[in-house]
Inverse folding.
């Protein structure tokens, strides 16, 4: 059974940092490009970042470029998203995705003072 | 505002066939395959179509995808009440050097 479980979300002040983790099982993690996708309250799905199978290449949306860093550890079947200089507009549910079809249930990040 | 344009809403009656469009440009749909996702509030999004017209195992053949030029479409035939959800297209964009989602279409089954 495929399982994708995000963790690390929570409440953080503007300008703060947070690291999300995503633990995957039930599929060959090392052969899947991995994504972070978010959904702000009342808004649609938004691409955040992605990483190739061996971690050699990373991609970011313009809205998070320079502030977020995606990484992966294939030995641990784990994906990460290091978020810094967080803004109120980063408030969203963050989904980890084994692209295109293995989605987690999401973890809520709230940026507020 | 997304570079992919979807109608914000669509509706149909049970048994009807509806289509949802996704309009882009040569830097995205015009050169790359499209994925379609179904999202019910509070749940994980589900891939319905990948590579523009491929259905993952377990997705009913009532769902189909197509692409022509810089536009793509998702068709749902034999509409059912459980199809009421938000639908999103997604594709790689060369100009953005990343993926992009359409704004989403809220489907109501009357």
């Amino acid at each position: 059974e495929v399982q994708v479980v995000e963790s690390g979300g929570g409440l953080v002040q503007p300008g703060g940092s947070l690291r999300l983790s995503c633990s995957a099982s039930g599929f060959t993690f090392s052969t899947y490009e991995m994504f972070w996708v978010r959904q702000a309250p009342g808004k649609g799905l938004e691409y955040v970042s992605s990483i190739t199978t061996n971690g050699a290449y990373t991609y970011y949306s313009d809205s998070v470029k320079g502030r977020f860093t995606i990484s992966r550890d294939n030995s641990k079947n784990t994906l990460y998203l290091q978020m810094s200089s967080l803004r109120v507009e980063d408030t969203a549910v963050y989904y980890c995705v084994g692209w295109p079809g293995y989605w987690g249930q999401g973890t809520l990040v709230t940026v507020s003072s | 505002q997304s570079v992919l344009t979807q109608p914000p809403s669509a509706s149909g009656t049970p048994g009807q066939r509806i289509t949802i469009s996704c309009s882009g440009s040569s830097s995205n749909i015009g050169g790359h395959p499209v994925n379609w996702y179904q999202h019910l509030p509070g749940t994980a999004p589900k891939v319905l179509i990948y590579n523009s017209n491929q259905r993952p195992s377990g997705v009913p053949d009532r769902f189909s995808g197509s692409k022509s030029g810089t536009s793509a479409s998702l068709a749902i035939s034999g509409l059912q009440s459980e199809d009421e959800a938000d639908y999103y297209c997604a594709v790689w964009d060369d100009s953005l050097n990343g993926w992009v989602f359409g704004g989403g279409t809220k489907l109501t089954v009357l």
Observations:
- The mean pLDDT of chain B is 96.
- Chain B touches chain A through 23 residues (CB under 8 Å).
- Strands of chain B lie at 9-12, 18-23, 35-39, 46-49, 63-68, 71-76, 85-93, 98-101, 105-109.
